[in-house]
Amino acid sequence: MLKRKRGILFVVSAPSGAGKSTLCRRLVGELEGISFSVSYTTRPPRPGERDGVDYFFVSRERFERMMEEGAFLEHACVHGNLYGTSKAFVEEKLSSGLDLLLDIDVQGAKQVFSKVEDAVGIFIFPPSVEELRKRLINRGTDPPEVIEKRLAAAEKEMKEAGIYHYWILNDDLERAYQQFRAVFLAERARSHRLSRDE
Q1: Which of 29, 42, 121, 159 is positioned for an S-S bond with 82, CB 3.0–4.6 A?
Q2: Domain span at residue 48?
Q3: Domain tally, the chain
Q4: By C-alpha distance, which of 79, 96, 98 is closest to 37?
């Protein structure tokens, strides 16, 4: 009989608009034993977002206090807002055998890879920067100057994708999802993650 030793930490990053959230939500909805890691942020909630579900929305003062206390596995400043992942939250979930999906940017991923030896990194690429521009415009959530900032950040992030273990091109959503899902299933079957009853 094979048993999982502990949960796996999956780190998923992508430029804004590459389709990462769509892939992550579908996976969590379809696969058992995997959950989103809920990050802390100082940014205000977007319409429909719920505290403790999408993010833990906190004041800048509280966030900075948590940073000083060393409460974060990773933290980053993105577009002027602070984001962070609680060490205690991650450890509690992984030791209970639950896989965790961390939806974070490249700055945060670097910190996680330096601290969690067997974390698995997946980078989602958009078909092109032009397609990314179209998606961000069609999303209708950001003014033009924010879109330009996001595109500049995307170019930078894609140059750093070499730190990830897997690359997935999201030019066809169904194909990208099947690849994404396959990574999770394969990682769960790796021998070093399992123990065997004699």
Answers
A1: 42
A2: 2-191
A3: 1
A4: 98
